[in-house]
Amino acid sequence: MIGEPEVVEDSRTAAETPAAGLPAAAQPHWLTLKNAIVCLQGHQLKDGSADPLASRDDLAALVSQVTTELRMLATFFEHDAGYLHASAADFERWAAGDFAVPDFLDSLTAFQPQQHRVDGLQHVVVFPMYTQNGSADRLFEAVAVEVIWPEFVARLEETDYSNALFVPIRFLDFTPGYDTNSAVLFPETIAMRTVPSFTWGAIFADREAARFRLVVTAAAETTRLELPADARVLLADQHLAEETFVMWDLIHDRTHMRGDLPFDPFMIKQRMPFFLYSLEELRCDLTAFREAVRIEREALYSPHTVETAKRVQYAILFDRIFRFAITGTRVRNYDGLGGQLLFAWLHQQRVLHWTDTRLSIDWEHVAGAVIALGESIDDLYWRSIDRPKTAHWLAAYALVSSTLTPNPASVWAKGPDALPLDGPPRGLTDQVLPDEFPLSMFYEALEKKMNGVIESTKGITGQTVLG
How far is residue 395's CA from residue 74's CA, in Å, rounded to a whole number? Predict the structure, then answer.
């Protein structure tokens, strides 16, 4: 891949453009469904209900279109027939209730993609939902996807890295809520009357891979980083990059509930300083890195698995230090902070160098340094099992601030004596600045050079970079 993704001009609107890969006979039904969903979005309020001023006759006609096409598509997607019929029934109930806040619990319960992890298997998915890193409004969205489940990943999941909830997918087509930075399809984002036990989570590996390739290629050129040959192969091949991200995500996702955890560090809905989320996400990535090193070094796996494990190490390292660190706003950007921390740690361990305006990495020693950072977070978690919450928060801050320089205006940086330790934990959270750990001078300069490239990845898919 060289330069920006290709854009082919076409007089057709997005709603009329065929979804690459869907069966030809299903295309007209998908396009009619997608167009009707886009029209419905134009009549919805933030909570998913219809605007009281919208014509009920027009809404009923659109819902009729949607339900007709869902039932037609069920004939092409037999593995999802129960879900597609349940979705049609949920739309009809929404219409019967005068288009109030939608409730799609029944169709959500019927949709079980984790039971059909077959490479290339396709799904048409329609829900009222918000899209993380996309739209915060709970509007109807439609997305056509296919599963990415190569044999070597299936083998890893069956043996060393069981993860029954993980479903890696790629885009075929989507409505505007996914013409964004969102790369996940999570059931908890869907409008429903009660919250069930969630049984799956889907990640768009093709979008992750495509934006990784674009951003890292540009960042390496900007910093004059000389890449190893196998890293160049990764950046040049969308298929290999997708497999790499599937393997990374498989191990990352399961790590959230494994290890010496201070109860449940991430999943329980609670308000806490954002640097704790940074450490949890970084812990999962560094665990994936460590496991990838183990797979590479142990003679237990197929050659392709070993090669992918090496690529996983490059992906975690480069995505974190080049994309995560400078993507998004500076307001409680926990993934950005994790990228900054990894970069600074490697620099201070003297395996990453910025000298004579050129970035270089001592590849022989980088794995040990990355694993050492992971071990320091693991030790924090192990010790925190015996600590009160406030003490755990203070220890976590000490770990981060021992490597990254806090904001000069930080109250936390002044130490425990400056913090309201005699009140509820919320008082401590309120004292954390939106940008508690500002960008270094290196990242300030890199961000200015990379802004355009990062912005260009909005809505990117694997098909985009393949032309």
Answer: 54
